[in-house]
Amino acid sequence: MDTRRLGSQGLAVSVQGLGCMGMSEFYGAGDDGESIATIHRALELGVTLLDTADMYGPFTNEQLVGRAIADRRDSVVVATKFGNVRGENGERLGIRGDAEYVHQACDASLERLGVDHIDLYYQHRVDRRVQIEETVGAMAELVAAGKVRYLGLSEASPETLRRAHAVHPISALQTEYSLWTRDVDEQILTSTRELGVGFVAYSPLGRGFLSGRFSSPDDIPEGDFRASNPRFQGDNFRRNLAIVDRVRELADEKGVTAAQLALAWVQSRGDDVVPIPGTKRVNYLEENVAATEIELTDSDLERLEEVAPHGQTAGDRYPDMSSVNV
Question: How far apart are CA 25 and CA 222, in angstroms?
Answer without folding.
Answer: 12
